[in-house]
Design a protein that fits this description.
CATH topology of the largest domain: Signal recognition particle alu RNA binding heterodimer, srp9/1
CATH class of the largest domain: Alpha Beta
Strand content: 35-45%
InterPro entries: Glyas_Bleomycin-R_OHBP_Dase, PhnB-like
Protein name: VOC family protein
Domain PhnB-like: 5-129
Length: 136
């Protein structure tokens, strides 16, 4: 397996819902392991200890619910960036990710010639989408 770099997102009790949402947006195979599968009992047993979404487009997105003793401050340490020249694919991702979220930069043509938008999805995760003109 080659070395890869991918985002790892943290959630506060809604990790399964968030990762299933991303699977609906991006497609692919989602594997979810709960804390209970590794011996944790009680309220945290059904929460996500580790989830990994691998898509046909080559994306890998990982995530987990944080234990109650860990600080959860969404949005201030990571932004997930999607970029490419497949306008339909990227616009579809944008539509799904921004629905129910907060758009800080509408997806539109920018001074550098690409379409770009920024939003925070309904789970508090910041996203940037950049669509470059297809190169011929």
């Amino acid at each position: 397996m080659p070395t890869r770099l991918n985002p790892y997102l943290n959630f506060s009790g809604n990790g399964r819902e968030a990762m299933e949402f991303y699977q609906r947006v991006f497609g692919g195979n989602l594997v979810v392991n709960t804390f209970g599968e590794f011996g944790t009992e009680g309220a945290q047993a059904d929460q996500v200890m580790h989830a990994m979404l691998e898509t046909d487009s080559g994306f890998t997105l990982m995530g987990s619910d944080l234990p109650p003793e860990m600080d959860y401050t969404p949005g201030n340490t990571i932004t997930v960036s999607l970029s490419g020249d497949d306008m339909d694919e990227l616009r579809g991702y944008w539509t799904a990710l921004s629905e129910g979220g907060i758009v800080s930069v509408p997806l539109e043509r920018q001074m550098w010639g690409d379409e770009f938008g920024a939003c925070v999805d309904r789970f508090g995760v910041p996203w940037m989408v950049n669509i470059s003109p297809a190169r011929t």
